[in-house]
Amino acid sequence: MKRIITTLVCLVAALASNNASAALRVFACEAEWGALARELGGDDLQVYVATSALQDVHQIQPRPSLIAQWRQADLAICTGADLEIGWLPALASKGANPKIAPGAPGFFEASRAVSMLEVPTRLDRADGDVHPFGNPHIQTDPRNIARVAAALTARLVELDVARAPAYRARHAAFEQKWTAAIAGWEARAAPLAGVAVISAHQSWAYLYAWLGLREVAALESRPGIPPSGAHLAQVLATLDKQPAKIVVYAAYQDRRPVAWMQQRTNIASAQLPFSPGGADGTDDLVGLFDVTITRLLDALAGKSS
Amino acid sequence: MSFIPRHARILFGTALLAGAPSPVALAVQTPQELQQMRDELRALRSDYETRIRALEERLQRAEQADAPPPQVESPPPTASTREPSASAFNPRISLILDGGYADYRLDDRAPVVPGFLLGDETGLREEGLSIGETELAIEANVDHSFHAWTTLAFSPDEGEVGVEEAYIDTLNLPAGLAVKFGRFFSDIGYQNHQHAHAWEFADAPLVYRTMLGTQFGDDGVQLRWVAPTDTFLELGTELLRGDAFPAGGEGRNGIKAVTAFAHVGGDAGPSGAWRLGVSHLRADANRRPSGDEDQGTLVTFDGKSDLTILDGVYKWSPNGNATVRNAVIQGEYFFRREHGDLVSDPQGAADASRYRGDQQGFYLQGVYQFRPRWRVGLRYDRLFADNQVANAVADTPLALLGDDGGDDPQRWSLMADFSNSEFSRFRLQFNLDDSRPGHDEDHQVFLQYIFSLGPHPAHQF
Q1: Residue A43 exposure: Cα atoms within 13 Å on the Cβ side
Q2: Does B270 touch chain A if contact means CB atoms closer than 8 Å?
Q3: Coil, strand, or helix at residue B395?
Q4: Does the beta-carbon distance from A64 to B458 stay under 8 Å?
Q5: Crossing angle of helices A229-241 and A256-264, rounded to 10°
Q6: A172 Cβ partners below 8 Å, 6+ apart?
Q7: In 3-state terms, what secondary structure has residue B204?
Q8: Which of B226, B275, B280, B423 to mutate to test the interface with A (most CBs of A within 10 A)?
Q9: Predicted confidence band at B44 (pLDDT cuts at 50, 70, 90)?
Q10: DSSP conformational letter for A245
Q11: Which of B321, B455, B460 comes nearest A55 by C-beta?
Q12: Residues in chain A within 8 Å Cβ distance of B226
C-alpha cells in the first residue's frame, strides 16, 4: 500500500513540474465567475464551473467530481459571504488542496469586492436561512461584475505574474465593453423603474437596486423555506393592497408556486437566467443581462416567461 | 381634493360665491341673460378647477421633494469592512437533538442475531417515548496547519458523556495528502463515516449492526490521498488502536486494527453522480466480549477478523438541482471471515471451541424526495452466516452461533420524513424485522425527530 502511494506521489510530482507553464486551473463555484474568468483569462486559464444556473447554489453537495476538480485547481473563485457554506468547507476538507483553501491567495471571494445589501441586523434561524454577511446574490447587478472583474484581475496578476500584461489588457477591453453595455441596458430598462414585483426567493436585491424595481413580497415566507399554501394566500392578499406587475423567479426555482400565483391573478412572470446558462443565449455575461432585461420588459408588456 | 388644505378649500368656495351674481338681481333677468349667466358660471367653475388641479400638482411635487430620496447607492456595511471581534475566533458549536417514539411487537429485545457475535451498542432504540443521544460538535481551525473536530455524545442515561470523535486533521500537506489523528469514524464503507443524524433511516443497516457494532470508530491515525485526476480517486489507510468491535478485548499494545480503502466517483451526465468504494478492515481480537454476563450469554473471542466491504451510491436530481426532487440509491456488501477460539461463559462453565466464521450480508436502500421537504425511503437488509463451531455445546451461545442453517436474517424498512428546514427533520419508519432467532418476526415503529442548532450543517455526499 505504502509503496503504491509513494510511487503515485512521485508520479504526480513529476506531472506537476511538467505543468508549471501550463494554464492556471480555475475552480469557479458559480457560472458567473466562470464566465468572468474566461473574459479575463482567455486561453491562459482552464476554467471548471462547479455549479450551473439550473441548480440552487445553496443546496450543492460535495460530489466526487467536485472534489476531484478542487484537488487540481490553482485558483478558486467563489461568491463567498456564506453562499456556499453548506458545501465549500466539506469540499475544501475532502479536496486536500492548500493552494485554494479558504484564506489562501488562491481562494478568491467575489463578495469582498462589492457593497453588500440586506445585511441582517439580527441573526436568528427563526428568520430562515439568513446570510450573516448580507444577500450573497451579487451577480445580478452588472456594476458588481465590473467591481469583481477589477479585483479578480489584481488576483490573477498576483498569482501569475508572467501573464500579467495579458490579464490587464483583457481587463481593459472588458471594462470598456462592459461600461458601454451597462449604458445600453440602463437605457432599455428605463420603463422598469418603480415597477412593483414579487420574487420567488430573495435573490434579486442587487438587480432591483440597479433598475429601481420595487419588491413588494416574496413567495418564500423566509429565505430557504419552500413556500407553503398559507403563505402564498398571504402574498395574494398583499397583492390586493399593493398590486405588483411581475413575479420574478430564477431558472432553477420551482415554477409551481409561480404558476399558482398566476392562476389567481393576471400577473406576468419573468423567468430570469440568474447565472450564465440559465436561458438560451446567456452563455456569456453580456447575454446574461441582455436576456434578463428582455424578459423583464416582456413581462411588463404582459408576456410571461 | 385630498392634497388641498382645508382653509384653501374655504377660500376657493368664497371666491366662487363672490364671482357669482347676487340672487336678488336674478329675478329681473330674461331667459337669454339667464343662459349667459349659466355659461359664465360654468366657465368660472372650470377655470377654478384647472387652477385647483395645478395647485394640487405643485403641492404634490413639493411633498415629494421633502421626502428622502430612495436609498439605492448608499453604502451599507461591506464585506471587506466586516468588523472583527474576539468572538469570531470562538469555535463553531452545534448541537444535535434526537429523540422520538419506538414501538415493538415483541417483548424480547435482547440484541441477538443468529449466526453473529454482536459488539457493544447494538441494542434497539428505547421503547416508548425517549430521547436518543444528544450530540455536541465543536470545530475550528487550530492554526494555519491544523483543524480540530470534537463530537461529544450525551447518553440519555444519567451522567454519561462519550467522546465519539476527537481528531485533528491537516490543512496544508502537499500533493493531495491529508492526515487525521485522534478518535474518528473510519472511512471504510459508505455510511460508516456519517453521523447517525445524517442517516436516511432511524436505525443502522443490519450489516453495520452485526459486523461493525453499528458504527466503527477508533483511536489512531489516517492517511488519505486524493489523485489529481478528473475522475475522483481517493486512497487511504488507517492504523488503529483496536479497541472497537470487531477488534477489542485486552492487551492493546501495537496496532490492533488496520484498514485500507479506495473510492472512485464522478458524474453521470448533468443529473447523476456516483461513488464506488472497496475497503478492508483487519482486526485483532483478544478476548473480545459479546453477549451479556448477567444473562449467562457472555462469549469471548480470540483471533482475527477480516472484513471486506463493497459500497456504491448513486444520486439523481434533475440537472443536479436537488431542491425539488432527488433520489439516492445506496448499497453495501459485507464479507467477513473470523477465525480463532471462543470461550462461552468464561466465569462459569467455560466451554471452549475452535471457531471459523464466514459471514456475509448486504443492504440496499432507495430514498426519493418527491416534493420539497418530503421524502420516502425503502430499505432491504439481508445476512448470511456459515459458521463452524467445533464444540457447539447445547443451550449455550456456541450452539446458537453454530446453528445458522436456514436462519438467514432479513429486514424490510419503510420510512417517510419531512424536513421543516435544513435544520429540522421528522421521520416515521416501519420495520418488518426478521433478524431474530427462530424467525420470530418483529414489527417495529419509530417516530423520530432530529434538530440541529448552530452553524449551517455541512451537506454530505
Answers
A1: 1
A2: yes
A3: coil
A4: no
A5: 40
A6: none
A7: coil
A8: B226
A9: low
A10: S
A11: B321
A12: 67-68, 71, 94-96
Q: Which residues, including other chains, have CB under 8 Å from residue B354's CB and lie 6 or more apart? A: B340, B341, B342, B388, B389, B390, B391
Q: What is the pLDDT of residues B379-396, one digit of tens each?
A: 999 999 888 888 877 777
Eight-class DSSP state of B29: -
Q: What value does the mean pLDDT take over residues B248-256?
A: 80
Yes or no: say if A96 and A106 are a contact pair by the CB < 8 Å rule. no
B408: buried, middle or exposed (CB in 10 Å: 19+, 13-18, 0-12)?
middle
Above 50 in pLDDT, residue B217?
A: yes
Instruction: In whole angstroms, give the CA distance from residue A155 to residue A153.
Output: 5
Distance CA B401, CA B437 (A): 10
Residue appearing with cell numbers 463451531: B389
Q: Look-up: residue for cell 434497539?
A: B124
B322 contacts on A by Cβ (under 8 Å): 56, 59, 61
Count of positions (residues) in chain A: 305
Note whether B320 contacts A209, CB cutoff 8 Å. no
Are the beta carbons of A59 and B321 separated by less than 8 Å?
Answer: yes
Cα dihedral value A115, A118, A121, A127, nearest 10: -150
> In B, which residues are within 8 Å of A253 by CB distance?
323
Q: Which residue has the cell 476527537?
A: B166
Q: What is the DSSP string of B70-95?
A: P-SS----BGGGPPP-GGGGSPEEEE
Distance from CA of B234 to the nearest CA of A (A): 9
Q: Evaluate the CA torsion angle B408, B287, B164, A66 in order and state its sign.
A: negative
* pLDDT of residue B12 exceeding 50: no
Contact state of B76 with A89 under an 8 Å Cβ cutoff: no
Cα–Cα distance for residue pair A199/A245, rounded to 1 Å: 11
Cell of A85: 457554506
CA distances to B231, B332, B333 from B266, in Å: 6, 18, 21
- Closest alpha carbon within chain A to B75: A115
Residues in chain B: 461
- Contact criterion met (CB < 8 Å) for B265 and A56: no
| CA B4 from centroid of its chain's CA atoms | 63
Q: Which three cell numbers stand for residue B265?
A: 466517483
All three cell numbers of B53: 388641479
Please, which contacts does A227-234 make with residues 24 or more away whose CB atoms are closer than 8 Å? A227/A200, A227/A257, A232/A257, A232/A260, A232/A261
Q: Which of A26-35, B85-94, B271-280 has the lowest mean pLDDT?
A: B85-94
Indicate the DSSP class of residue B214: T
Does residue A221 register a pLDDT over 70? yes
Looking at this protein, which amino acid is placed at residue B26? Answer: L
Nearest CA to A24 out of A177, A157, A206, A200 is that of: A157
- Helices of type H across chain A: 2-18, 31-41, 64-72, 88-95, 142-159, 164-188, 205-211, 229-241, 256-264, 285-300
Give ipTM to 2 decimals.
Answer: 0.82
Cell of A192: 422598469
Q: What is the pLDDT of residues B48-62, one digit of tens each?
A: 666 666 666 666 655
Domains and their CATH numbers in chain A:
19-114+126-183 (3.40.50.1980), 190-300 (3.40.50.1980)
Contact B135, B96 (CB under 8 A): yes
> What cell was used for B379?
430499505
Q: How far from B55 is each of B41, B43, B49, B67, B311, CA to CA, in Å?
A: 21, 18, 10, 19, 81
**Crossing angle, helix B6-19 and helix B31-66, to 10 degrees?**
160
For B168, the closest chain A residue by CA position comes to A93
Nearest chain A Cα distance for residue B455, angstroms? 9
Q: What is the pLDDT of residues B412-457, one digit of tens each?
A: 999 999 998 888 999 999 999 998 887 788 999 999 999 999 887 7
Using CA atoms, how far residue B16 sits from A75, B11, B390, in Å, is 79, 9, 122
Residue B374 and residue B418 in contact, taking contact as beta carbons nearer than 8 Å: yes
Q: Grid cell 505543468 — which residue?
A: A19
